[in-house]
Specification:
This protein is mainly α. It contains ten helices and no strands.
């Protein structure tokens, strides 16, 4: 019998509760250690569910961890899109996106750790993160802002630099001021490599970092 208020059966509601418990347990464990060091037994024990229930929702622990990580990354990417709503310059869009990820790492190191450990999104070429960066690079090249050599290699450089800067923020518990300084130095080098003059590159990154990381 379906509930009038929710429109789902008691069995479906129970299934949703189990799935939510698995997601929360996995997130807690990922904060403590990488997915490779976590067992399914640990996950179901932390979630307080039967082991058989795990396989009703996820094929393996990697899929569960990826789901946890993906939800956080999707939230951060939503922040990136909001931050860039009225920004048309590809150079600013690209840098503001990286600064948004660093700001999230400063303000929420716990969930940032879970996001980084739950999914190898840096190497997933079809990921939404790569799509948005690839579009900014493509627009920059088309507009003459970036050198043509930046096409595919540029995407890897942005993702890689952003990834390791985020790790540094979390591992060293950098303050907003320290993260701002790191972003200014690291991201201005990227823009210089993309063909911008150093003075403009530093200005773009300094403006973006001040607005997003410190703002």
């Amino acid at each position: 019998m379906k509930s009038v208020k929710t429109g789902i059966t008691a069995r479906e509601a129970q299934s949703l509760r189990i799935r939510d418990s698995l997601l929360r347990a996995c997130a807690d464990l990922l904060f403590e250690q990488p997915i490779d060091a976590i067992t399914i037994n640990e996950i179901v024990q932390r979630a307080g569910v039967a082991k058989g229930s795990f396989y009703n929702h996820f094929p393996d622990k990697e899929a569960l961890a990826s789901t946890v990580s993906e939800a956080i990354l999707t939230e951060v990417e939503s922040r990136v899109r909001k931050s860039n709503e009225n920004v048309t310059d590809p150079a600013y869009r690209m840098v503001r996106g990286m600064c948004t990820h660093m700001q999230f790492a400063v303000s929420d190191p716990h969930r940032t750790t879970v996001m980084l450990r739950g999914h190898d999104w840096i190497s997933a070429g079809v990921h939404q993160l790569h799509d948005s960066v690839r579009q900014d690079v493509s627009d920059g090249i088309a507009a003459g802002r970036f050198a043509p050599r930046c096409d595919e290699v540029g995407v890897l450089q942005i993702i890689g630099t952003g990834y390791f800067c985020t790790i540094k923020v979390v591992d060293e518990r950098l303050s907003a001021e320290q993260a701002n300084d790191l972003a200014t130095r690291a991201f201005s080098l990227i823009l210089c490599g993309f063909g911008l003059e150093e003075e403009e590159a530093v200005r773009i990154v300094a403006d973006s970092a001040r607005d997003i990381i410190r703002g």
